[in-house]
Amino acid sequence: MAPVAPPATKLLFDVRVQPDHTPPVPTDPPIIGVLDPKLHKAPLARYGLLYMLPQDRIAFSVAGNGSYTGALEFDITAFDSNGTLVTSRSQTLNISLTSDEYKQFIQKPFQFLQQIDLPPGQLRVRAGVRDTVSNKVGTIDVPLEIAKAIPSKNTASAK
């Protein structure tokens, strides 16, 4: 997910990136992502990345009892205009389905929402997905301008 790494295209997906204006809930962490410590006092804007993968692109291992297992890794990295990493987030989604659940799963595209807090400025966000069963990877770069005046529900503070 480095800024100079070529895009991976073995796993094709779409991603929608937009500000998340939903009110925070008490269980939300103060900061989502691994933010550069120098930015802990910056006003942050929470963004949601909605990944959409064709269900036939996701590989599963089939167990003897007819169950299906798979895992997808979702990664976000954000770089400033100098190519410096400002924040990142990684999540693994383990999928375990019965035969009946698998039949329902393959009926519609798969979606996954991942959130991250971003500091103001010109950013390049790289989103990536890795299917751990097939070991296929896909990445996409999204340029974003995070306005300095965005009111944030989360303002980081160093403690």
Could you list some keywords that capture this structure?
elongated, Immunoglobulin-like, mainly beta, 4-stranded antiparallel sheet, 159 residues
Helices and strands in order, then pairings?
Layout: E1 14-19, E2 43-53, E3 61-62, E4 68-79, E5 85-97, H1 99-105, E6 110-118, E7 121-131, E8 136-146, E9 154-155
Antiparallel strand pairs: 1-2, 2-6, 2-9, 3-4, 4-5, 4-7, 7-8
3D architecture notes:
The chain has 159 residues and is mainly β. The chain has one domain (14-20, 32-149): Immunoglobulin-like, CATH 2.60.40. It is 4% helix and 48% strand. A hairpin with a 4-residue loop joins strand 7 (121-131) and strand 8 (136-146). The longest helix has 7 residues, at 99-105. It is elongated, with a radius of gyration of 17 Å. It starts with 13 loop residues before the first strand and ends with a strand. Mean pLDDT is 89; it is low at 149-159.
